[in-house]
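Q: Can someone sanity-check these two? First one:
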Amino acid sequence: MLQQKIKQLQRDIFDYNIGTVPAQLSNLMTTIIETSAFDLSDIDKVQRFNHIMQACLEALQKQDYLLLADITQFELENFLDLSNREDNI
């Protein structure tokens, strides 16, 4: 589910369907937290997630959608270790 949400966000960016991006990003971040996609008791992981989330929000605020796509692909997917998960949450 997370992998699909990330890929849809990236597709919308590359298709320049920008109007949907803020809501998708918000929904994605909420889903990550609500599904406990990482150990919320691990302070280092929480801080890293906060850093990634802040970088995403800054890219969105600057309307740098390609940077946002890169952050979700190279930082968020790696952080969530989606490539090694069978269920992809």
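And here is the second, same format, sequence then tokens:
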Amino acid sequence: MQDWKYTLDQTLHIARRFLREEENVPVLPYQSPTEAAQALPLRLEEKGLSEADFFECLEALVLQTPKTASTGFF
């Protein structure tokens, strides 16, 4: 698979999953900062991530992002 096609496929996968989650769970349950830090793979590594690992981390981050478009947010 060409690099750009893989990148586009992964980006669309994450966007679609986010939209499904937004419909099913419009407001995320509360997480303490400690719980959020443990759930999200945000750390600096000595060497970079593979593209697959990058998209895995990006998906986790996107799914933990507050859904501000929901009426339940306000």
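A (reply): Looked at the second one. The radius of gyration is 14 Å. Residues 3-24 form the longest helix (22 residues).
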